[in-house]
Fold this sequence. Notes:
The complex is a heterodimer.
Chain A: H1 9-24, H2 35-57, H3 65-80, H4 90-109, H5 117-137, H6 139-142, E1 155-156, E2 159-160, H7 163-185, H8 188-198, H9 200-205, H10 210-236, H11 247-260, H12 265-292, H13 298-304, H14 308-319, H15 329-343
Antiparallel strand pairs in A: 1-2
Helix pairs in contact in A: 1-7, 2-7, 2-8, 2-10, 2-11, 2-12, 3-4, 3-5, 3-10, 4-10, 8-10, 11-12, 13-14
Chain B: E1 3-14, E2 17-28, E3 32-36, H1 43-50, E4 58-63, H2 74-106, H3 117-127, H4 133-157, H5 162-167, E5 170-172, H6 185-192, H7 201-206, H8 209-228, H9 244-257, E6 262-266, H10 274-289, E7 293-297, H11 301-307, E8 310-315, E9 318-323, H12 325-329, H13 332-339
Parallel strand pairs in B: 3-7, 3-8, 5-6, 6-7
Antiparallel strand pairs in B: 1-2, 1-4, 8-9
Amino acid sequence: MGAPRKMPWKMALALVALAMIPVVEPSLPQRLAISEPMTDVFVYAILGMALNVITGFTGLLNLGVAAFAAIGAYVFAISTCEIYPFQLGFWPALALTMAVGALAGFALGAPTLRVRGDYLAIVTLGFGEIVKDVLVNLDSITKGTQGINPLPPPTVFGAELGSRGQYWLLLAFVVVVFAGARSLERSRVGRAWLSIREDELASRAMGIRPDHAKMLAFATCASLAALAGALTASRLSSSGEPSNYDFQVSVLALCIVIVGGIGSVRGVLLGAIVMVGMNSIVLVKLTEMIGNTDSAGASRLAETHGMERVWVFITTWAQNVLLSPTNWKFLLFGLALVLMMMFRPQGILPPRAEHEAPPEDEGTGPAPAKGAAP
Amino acid sequence: MSTILEVRDVTMRFGGLVANERVNLAVQSGEIFAVIGPNGAGKTTLFNAITGIYEPTEGAVLFDGHDVRREWTPRVAATGFAVGVASAVLAVLALNVTALWQAAVVGKYVYGQPFPWGEAIATVPGTLHAAGFWATWGVAIAASLVGRLGFGAIWHSQRRTPDLIARSGVARTFQNIRLFPEMNLVENVLVGMDQHFRCGFWSCLLRPPWFWRERATMRRRAFELLKFVELDRYAGDLARALPYGYQRRLEIARALATGPKLILLDEPAAGMNPAESADLMRLIRRIRESGVTVVLIEHDMKVVMGISDRIAVLQYGKKIAEGTPEQIRNDPVCIAAYLGTEVIQ
């Protein structure tokens, strides 16, 4: 005890597998290429972990997390884009983005400290809409629905990253945010958050200052969400248009947290893989496959058996806008949520029962890592 | 012995309902003081008034001779001022942002050329009043007033809060147990110890060596407290999985973790069997021996009479008697309050 726990081997394995995707991809057929949509998963994982701080740990329902991502994306775009004079480097711009995000979190958190539950959800929902409207209407700065582009690619030690490098950079950010969220969760800061979620009055009576804790949670959430927004902007080389950060994004982030397990950082990662993976990979690939089956020889097979009309019917049916798999996503999200609520309301990976084991044989200083002990 | 807690003429009124009427108590340091009374006599309300959950309608609660309240320090005043200035700056920026941007950025930046920072900044004073001089200053003054008044209002409503009282050395338990059910026993106690931690946000995030040292000491202390209430065997279990009697003891451990001089126990023996309440009496005596003054609300007369040094009796929100267990047992007013008076035909 005392020292940082070793990473469980399952997680290390998953990390290596994820890191290998862009390496093995070129030797695979085009339709199996998933590194591009996987970056979506990473960004949403960061957004989910951001939301988890406020909704999972502190128990405050926030429906406006996309607004913080939008703020992040626009701050990052304005400070790096060559159409504006600031043209900061990737890392300073990222630091600035997170700082501005934290300030935005304070700005939303301070007046809403006394607001709880459904009311807070409404306030944050409104905040999300306000930010979106401001971004649309402040078009002399934000370029309205055009978005701000092009943005320079991210750099590491002066070297520009290609698509593979960007993939690894995003993965690295997911790992860092994960480690940070876990560190906070298992410290007095996280315990204060959890105690507010569990029973605010009792936690006050124990000397926890809920105002401080909630403001800190808001700022952390906003800062991480802004990071997610900035990374999206950097990947797309554009801030994107304001409607890219609408209510649907907040809801998807919330779905990730709920499906993964409210309050569980590992669960959020899994939730992001399941939800966004389904959205950006499975459904998209399915649509592509159905769209491409014409040339896949299956039609010839159908012709030889005298079933052309059946085949034509199937393909046109599959390409119908209303019936193509990508358009089922909300149906599937809804179904996933309903099933989760019915069969596993605590999420796929609920927070560990034993957050911290009892300190039975604990020394004074940091104990040596498990591997170092004889 | 000195008076550690003084309740002076406290009246709690909820609309027309008077829950406490001019209650006076003086608890001496180091004693076990019990507050008893029939249901609805206002005992828990009194506890809530003492611990800052309610603000007494009238009267004062003095702890060690002080009325625990946030002081209006220069720092608070400066923060309020800063909030006002920040609101004003934000409001002015929001009002004139487009004009400022046009003049300073769009007007001065030529694509590919280095940006003339000096010239751009020089345009700011001229365009700051783009929406009109009076409009801008009016908005600035209004926003600064709103910001400062808002800050002042929040500060004023937060002058005497439970967390401040807890931090000044008064801990409590609740009548209907309020643990943190999804946290384990160690964590529950560690929440109580929060005010004794010195690591802040960044230390918790980056975990430098002193974080680990503090973590180890704190966890050891938490474990010792669990030993004190004889729950160390269950240290890693979730609080909600504990049997009822143990939950009460855990709540006491969590309250002790705040490092109090005075602990208020709200019906600690409720729902306990005789063996458990005997254990509890021993525990309360040990708490007193460790130097913590105990005030308790209790219905179990065996417990009250067995451990209290002094007892106050409340009825209909008023204190009707106070004295040693012997005096209370023989006080006709108390007997009447509990058993009713004989009606003589």
